[in-house]
Amino acid sequence: MIESLLIANRGEIACRIIRTARALGIRTIAVYSDADANALHVRKADEAVHIGASPARESYLVGDRIIAAALDTGAEAIHPGYGFLSENADFAQAVLDAGLIWVGPNPDSIRAMGLKDAAKQRMIAAGVPVTPGYLGEDQSPERLKAEADAIGYPVLIKAVAGGGGKGMRRVDTAAEFADALVSCQREAASSFGNTDVLIEKYILSPRHIEVQVFGDSHGNVVHLFERDCSLQRRHQKVIEEAPAPGMDAATREAICAAAVKAAKAVDYVGAGTIEFIADASEGLHADRIWFMEMNTRLQVEHPVTEEITGQDLVEWQLRVASGEPLPKRQHELAIDGWAMEARLYAEDPAKGFLPSIGTLERFDLGTTARVDTGVEQGAEISPFYDPMIAKVIAWGEDRETAREALAYALDGAVVWPVRSNAGFLVEALDHPDFVSGTLDTGLIAREGDALMPPTHPTEEALADAAGALVSADPIAGFRLNAAPRRCATFLLDGEPVEVELDGQAGTTSAFDDVLISEAGQTWQLKPWRASGVAAGGAADGAILSPMPGRIIAVDVAAGDTVAKGQKLVTLEAMKMEHSLTAPFDGIVADLNAIEGGQVTEGTMLVRIEKDN
């Protein structure tokens, strides 16, 4: 067994790997950037090495520094986690060339499956069914559009080196193709350094089903059943579950056998995931499920597989990397119950899911569900990395029990003042189509505002919180020169609100305020004071940068006439593109955005004046 392990990652997955390594008696070494100097994974590891500045390209993506840190600390092996360098074949080879153990598949397997077009061609040769599309080398816009026209709309443009929903665009008409291609290639270049794309037929009732596979260096390959990751927003997974709802035994046998065949075709060793797309318009059937891609690493959603199989997949990775055979053979693996995982992000659904940064003054996810996280109360959420702050995982004897358990855990989540998507997750879990298991990848896009969490607490919760403040601060309970009344004014997230009091008082807060947690949402209630009135927002028409980032596109000029909803500026932040649009019809009166420029949160980028 490996005795010392450097983890070439950060946050939740680094903490997850440390937990298993410690249980196996393995010494752990963390790496960290400037932004992560006080991060949880740094404190949990036995040793930690600083590797560079906050941006990932200057730290977590600098392979030479990571390898040097492993050698300097006497580490035997490097575990890449997921993201960053986990699927970089050159880095994997460099680790091996340095005489270190790579906890992952061999570089040739990563290369074989790393580019989506080459992977599909290999799967076709291996007899694995693939989605109809264009995988050619001619990447001219004219050829790509001609292929899309021939396939028939809607189509999906996908970066061949993509992942995590980045470098991917759905195109519904020929007129939209050119702009979508440019945007897709630009995001692909930024995220993966490769602008090549492939074109696929877009399945109108798609389910995203993936199979966990594992291979060892002794020629053994097994599957650990399927996961359903169909609940997605902008091609990024939101809630995952195992097993897949509506999966019968025959279809399960077929899809899992295809996954094992795919892994064997590239002599796969370690943890991997074969992703399939299913046309679920008439339920799940083996002849309507096609290979999409392979992820040659551990997946974010691996805990749901762990929960239904009772296996620690990180332990499997470490044992296989140590040269041991797989801990279990196929006939020894079985499904027990149901598991669901929700990805808790530091983002604000009310503001178009823009990432939220700052200090987690309050962070409490309770104890009723499994929580995998890389942060704790008092931690800083920075703009440099992916905004996922935790995974909440629930198990139950059946799907409904697991769903209710997960909803209950998220309902009581307290995240403040950083915003989170917990309320959105609760709404999604309670949606009738999700409850019935008749979901597809378009559910969130179709439902839109119906899945938005409440913007205010209920009157009952507000009154209880106000009662707590009145008992702690009598000033809040009356107004000077006014008759006593049972209605008082407070500040709810900085905005005045009148609350009818019933004389009941709750527990007072130690933070000179009361936090109201309800349906996954957290609000702050304060006593009304003249000094506490929040300043007003920006003037109408002022488009402010919602977070620190880099301007990657400016689509208007000063003096231009614009229509409501028209794209003005594209901001790149937290590894994603964010389009800022016109709030109403008008004229561009001021333009302060410069392509390539770095901006801070609150910077006015564009000001629109109404055209009278």
Written account of the structure:
The termini are far apart. Helix 4 packs antiparallel against helix 5 and helix 12 packs antiparallel against helix 13 (422-429). The chain has 16 helices and 35 strands. The chain is globular. A hairpin with a 5-residue loop joins strand 16 and strand 17 (354-355). The strands form nine sheets. An eight-stranded antiparallel beta sheet has the order 14-13-10-11-12-15-22-20, with helices on both faces. Strands 3-2-1-4-5 form a five-stranded parallel beta sheet. A four-stranded antiparallel beta sheet has the order 6-9-7-8. The model is unreliable at 473-485, 503-511 and 529-539 (pLDDT under 50). It is an alpha+beta fold.
